[in-house]
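Researcher: Re-running this chain for the archive, since the previous output was lost when a drive failed. Same request as before.
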Amino acid sequence: LLERCNSEESGLNARNDYGQSAFLIACGNGHKDVIKLLLDHSERIELNARCNGGQTAFLYACNFGHKDVVQLLLDHSERIELNARSNSGYTALMEACEKGHKEVVQLLLNYSDRNIELNARRDNGFTAFMFACSNGHTDVVKLLLGHSERIELNARANGGLTAFMTACENGHKDVVKLLLDHSDRRKIELNARDVNGFTAFTKMHSMINKK
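Model: Regenerated structure tokens:
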């Protein structure tokens, strides 16, 4: 099919009803060998095309945890929008942290000197670090804490929530322990309050009492 597509045809970038191109579908499904073939024709392919939900191929690959595909796209990072956002405000790093894809997060951290935004915020104010803590992805939190000099550990989401608050409120014991270990170095604000005056500890006690 690639051999029969000439430069004047639009077949390489045709979309289905969901706005997905062949490149988007290949990346979303982790078909590394197909993606290699398509990247050989990258001058004719819209690498940053968006589906109806605003996701790019790079966002798809990170969301589904296809680390080999993510690496291929990072190797073409000069043409990939690394901080593209979906319609719901997610970046690739947020997607990988929310889903707990440790190896993908590691790849993105390795490339963070190439302008990957580590502290980008979703519409609700959540950062990638907050997503990892809120969902209890201990291994991902460890990775991010290893880059704590570049990550806003006490960033506030809407309502004044911090990563520490969300970890306590959701009962993620191992994540809470990791964050407490960092509090010894004064990196985590243990007594921060949300807009209602709750701290992480009062939120946790409130949750226990409800049970």
